[in-house]
C-alpha cells in the first residue's frame, strides 16, 4: 500500500476531530415491558477466526485489505489487518478495558489513528449490555443500554431474533452506527461501521465463514 496514501489517511483522521455530531433520538418506536436484564452481541463470540475483506473510507482516502478477528479468551480479541498484497498494517489485542499494540506500520503509527481503531473495535467487540429500557417497532425489538456517559440502542430482528444494528451514542450525541447482515447469531456475514460525526466508513465482508453453531 503506498506510503503517501497512509500518510493522507492519518492526516484525515486529525481533521476529523473538528467536526461535531447531532443529538440522537429514538423515533417510530413505542416502549414495552420486557423481562430481559441483559442482551448480547454474539457475532464475535466463537473461538474460530473471523476473516473479512475490509474496506475503509476516510474522507477521500480508500484503504482495503484483509481483517482477521480472533477471540483469545472471554474478555480479549486479537485483531490484525494486512494490505491486499499481504503486508501487515496493524496487529493488536483488545478488550473492553485494555489495549495492547503488537505491531503497526510506521506510516500508521499516529496516536490519533490508534485511538480511533481502539475505540471502534472496543465498541464493535463489546458483548454484554445491561438493559435499561425496552422498545419495539414493526420490525425490531429495541433495547436501550446505558453505561456511564455512553448509550447503546440494540435492534434485534423480530422474525429471526438476530442482532441487526447497534447505535452508539456518547453524551446524547450519535457516534457510530453498526449495521449487520447475518444468518446465525455468532457470525455476521457483513458489517457496515458508519461514523456520524465525520466521514469514516468501515465495511467488512465475509471471506471464510465460522462453521460452529
Question: Could you describe the 3D structure shown?
Answer:
The chain is mainly beta and 213 residues long. Helix content is 13%, strand content 50%. The protein has helices at residues 3-16, 111-124; strands at 30-31, 38-40, 50-58, 61-71, 77-83, 88-94, 99-104, 128-130, 133-136, 140-147, 150-157, 163-170, 173-184, 187-195, 200-208. It has a 13-stranded antiparallel sheet. A two-stranded antiparallel ribbon has the order 2-8. A hairpin with a 2-residue loop joins strand 12 (163-170) and strand 13.
Please describe the structure with a list of short key phrases separated by commas or semicolons:
two-stranded antiparallel ribbon, 15 strands, 213 residues, 50% strand, 13-stranded antiparallel sheet, 2 helices
The ordered H/E elements are HEEEEEEEHEEEEEEEE
Shape from CA axes? globular
Mean pLDDT: 87
Could you estimate the helical fraction of the residues in percent? 10-25%
Q: What is the radius of gyration computed over CA atoms, rounded to a whole number of angstroms?
A: 17 Å
Instruction: Extract low-pLDDT stretches.
Output: none
Assembly classification: single chain
State the end-to-end distance. Answer: 37 Å
SS-derived structural category: mainly beta
- Largest sheet, order of strands side by side? 1-9-10-11-12-13-14-15-3-4-5-6-7
Biggest beta sheet attributes: 13 strands, antiparallel
Amino acid at each position: 500500500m503506498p506510503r503517501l496514501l497512509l500518510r493522507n489517511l492519518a492526516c484525515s483522521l486529525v481533521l476529523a476531530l473538528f467536526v461535531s455530531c447531532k443529538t440522537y433520538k429514538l423515533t417510530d418506536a413505542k416502549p414495552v415491558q420486557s423481562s430481559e436484564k441483559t442482551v448480547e452481541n454474539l457475532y464475535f463470540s466463537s473461538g474460530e477466526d473471523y476473516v473479512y475483506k475490509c474496506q475503509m473510507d476516510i474522507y477521500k482516502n480508500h484503504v482495503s485489505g484483509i481483517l482477521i478477528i480472533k477471540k483469545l479468551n472471554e474478555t480479549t480479541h486479537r485483531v490484525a489487518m494486512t494490505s491486499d498484497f499481504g503486508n501487515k498494517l496493524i496487529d493488536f489485542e483488545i478488550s473492553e478495558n485494555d489495549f495492547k499494540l503488537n505491531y503497526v506500520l510506521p506510516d500508521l503509527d499516529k496516536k490519533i489513528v490508534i485511538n480511533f481503531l481502539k475505540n471502534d473495535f472496543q465498541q464493535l467487540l463489546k458483548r454484554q449490555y445491561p438493559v435499561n429500557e425496552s422498545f419495539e417497532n414493526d420490525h425490531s425489538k429495541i433495547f436501550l443500554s446505558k453505561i456511564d456517559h455512553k448509550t447503546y440502542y440494540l435492534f434485534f430482528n423480530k422474525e429471526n431474533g438476530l442482532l441487526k444494528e447497534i447505535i452508539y451514542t456518547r453524551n446524547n450525541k450519535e457516534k457510530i452506527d453498526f449495521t449487520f447482515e447475518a444468518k446465525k447469531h455468532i457470525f455476521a456475514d457483513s458489517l457496515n461501521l458508519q461514523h456520524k460525526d465525520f466521514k469514516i466508513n468501515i465495511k467488512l465482508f465475509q471471506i471464510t465463514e465460522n462453521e460452529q453453531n
